[in-house]
Amino acid sequence: MKHITLHLRRLALLTLLSVLGLGGCGDSPRYEPLPPGSLVLAFGDSVTYGTGAVQGEDYPTHLWKLTDWGVVNAGIPGDRASTARQRLPALLELHQPKLVIIELGGNDFLRKRPELQVKDDLEVMIRASQDSGAITALVAVPRLSLLRATTGTLKDSAIYAALAEETGAILIPDVFSAILSDDTLKADEIHPNGAGYQVLASGIAERLQAAGVLNP
After folding, report:
1. What's the DSSP call for residue 183?
2. Exposure winner among 140, 150, 154, 172, fewest CB in 10 A?
3. What sign does the CA torsion over 195, 141, 33, 58 have?
4. Cα(143)–Cα(5) distance, rounded to whole angstroms?
């Protein structure tokens, strides 16, 4: 537990620095806090699903415990941005979420899809979520390769910061890359373990709090 706490503090500092860096542009939106019970759609691939941890240790479950929101886990292992964009509209209509958290792109990168194509797919999903009336957050994903994952040198793909700037989506930077660069927080080269998912949820909560979506 002490080890996890140290990582949470370190990643909270990373998040704070990212917030300060974004604050200078003056375009980052501020929101009213979502009340307890608000429905949140966690939309993504195996990282949202929770691959690498036992049931109940996925990040949407941890986020629910941190926020008291109703968090729907809509993660599908192996999903790509190119296919996920097709299933999102039905989920938006079904759940009518107040907040959508998008975590996608890793499987596209592993298949060496051009980043600009991945960016286009993510933008379609961000715009669809925003058009539905939901606040939209985007988890930055590293430009995954097995070599970089093995050597612990992962950094966020630049497309995520660009998308946040262009669409006004809330960016969740640095956290996922930091987890996959730390052997104690990952189950394999591309998935967090139980402790890693707890850190991911805490990093998301910190950034949502900074944007005003979550009460301190």
Report:
1. G
2. 150
3. negative
4. 27
Q: For 2-22+36-210, which CATH class?
A: alpha beta
- Please name the residues in contact with 150: beta carbons below 8 A apart, sequence gap of 6 or more: 189
Percentages (nearest 5) of helix, strand, coil residues in the chain? 55, 15, 30
> What are the b/e assignments for 90-121, b being 16+ CB within 10 Å?
ebbeebebbbbbbbbbbbbbeeebeeeebbeb
Amino acid symbol at 104: L
What is this structure's pTM?
Answer: 0.86
Over the stretch 127-142, which tens digit does the pLDDT of each residue have?
999 999 999 999 999 9
- Determine which helix (DSSP H) or strand (DSSP E) holds 126, and give its type and residue range: helix 115-131
